[in-house]
What does this fold into?
Amino acid sequence: MIFTPALDDRFGVGRVTSRVGISREAIPIHGDTDIYSLVEQNLPSCVLIDEAQFLESKHVNQLANIVDWLNIPVICYGLLKDFRNQLFLGSQALICAADKIEEIKTVCSYCTRKATHILKFNDGKPVYSGKVVEIGLNDKYKSVCRIHYHRIPTQGE
Ligand SMILES: Nc1ncnc2c1ncn2[C@@H]1O[C@H](COP(=O)(O)OP(=O)(O)O)[C@@H](O)[C@H]1O
Ligand SMILES: Cc1cn([C@H]2C[C@H](O)[C@@H](COP(=O)(O)O)O2)c(=O)[nH]c1=O
It folds into this structure.
């Protein structure tokens, strides 16, 4: 069973879509969705959650119970930190609950260093404060290294 938070509606509510174009229907998670009950009724072989940074801590508890009481593996994918370089609340709850955490590495948009931060742009300018959740694509967010998070290169650099 595939789930994704309803608030990420970039490609439609309840849809997991990759930048490479692959897309799958998913069950949308709303504030009152009881993921445990839905999984208990269907008993799938695995549960996949995308955009897990947007989960509420009660959903993370439900996922832990699915693993512990239904013996069904749960794999979550999501961002660790927001554009302010602070942990998303869902990711914080997942770090505390998870059996295993795997980092998927990517490189900085401006150089070959490891991307450790995410820069957010408003009208082409980096911003470091404001509301945490703003659904968007590559025009709004860029993965960057620590150096370029604090100072984006000027033209020609
Ligand atoms: N199946 C795939 N094969 C090859 N490259 C992939 C595949 N899936 C993703 N990628 C690479 O990873 C990038 C990010 O993929 P995406 O699924 O949008 O990740 P996320 O949602 O985690 O940001 C893509 O633009 C592409 O370069
Ligand atoms: C950093 C950051 C991201 N978001 C949003 C932007 C996108 O809708 C998703 C991330 O999707 P991806 O396919 O994994 O890149 O999260 C946000 O709301 N706030 C942020 O700080």
